[in-house]
Endonuclease III-like protein 1
Amino acid sequence: MSAARPGLRRLRSAAGSGGSQTQGRPGVPRQSRRRKSVAIAYEAGQGEGAEPRRARWEPPRWREQLQHIRDMRSSRDAPVDEMGVQTCYDSSAPPEVMRYQVLLALMLSSQTKDQVTSAAMLRLRRRGLSVDSVLQMDDETLGQIIYPVGFWRNKVKYIKQTTAILKQKYGGDIPSTVEELVQLPGVGPKMAHLAMHIAWDSVAGIAVDTHVHRISNRLKWVKKETKSPEETRVALEEWLPRDLWKEINWLLVGFGQQTCLPVKPRCSQCLNQDICPAATRL
Ligand code: SF4
C-alpha cells in the first residue's frame, strides 16, 4: 500500500511545472479579452424569503477521531512510512523519470505489501529504471525482477503496455490528469490519485485503498455503508474538507497497518475505542 507524504514537492519544482496543469500548454486557446456576461444564481439562504441553508452532513465526532488517529500516527513508523511508494523513486533522476518510477511503484504496490514493492523497485532501479530501459527489457526478465509482487504476470503485461503508451503519447512522461491516468492499462483510480499527489503534487481527489475504505466504514465516515473503495471515495469527498484529502490516505493507511487491522483490530490500544461505532462489535 502506499501513501502521499509531504516533502515530495521537489518533483514538481524540479520539473518547473508549478501552478495550473494547463498553464502554458501549447494548444490551449487564450481566453478572449472581451468580458462575458455571467449569470449569477442566488444560493439558497441568501435571497429574500429564501429557505435557510441546510447544514451539510458530516459524521459526528470526526474531528476528534481524526485527531486521535494523528496522535496514534505521530511516530510515523508504519510500513507505509518507511517503504511506501513515496520512498521508492530515485530523487536524483530527471523529473519525468521520477514520475515514471512513482507510477511504476504504484502499479507494483497493488495487492502487495510495502516491503515487497520496495524491494522490487530497488532491483529495477539497480538496472536504471526508465521508460526506455523497460521497453528494452523482455517480459521474462521483467517478471523475474518484480517477482514476488502480487499478480506479477499481469503486472508485466500492464507495465509493458503502459510504458509503450507513455513513450508514444506522452513523450516518456506520465499524464497529469486522473482522467488520462486511469486510461492506462493496470492503473485504477486509487493509483491515479496517488500519482497526482506524489508525482505532480496536485490533489484532484482522495486516494482510497482497502485501509481507507475499511476504516471509513468502521468509523461511519460514510453516510451509509459503501461496498467499494470507489464508492467510499465519492462519499468522503462529499464532506471531508479538501485540505485533508492528501493527508487522509497517509494517515489511514498507516493506522490500518498498525492498529485498525483488517482482522482483529487492536481496539483496546486505540484512542478512538470510546467513540468508535465499530469498537464494541469487533
Ligand atoms: S476502535 Fe477499533 S475499529 Fe474503531 S478505529 Fe479503533 S481500532 Fe478501528
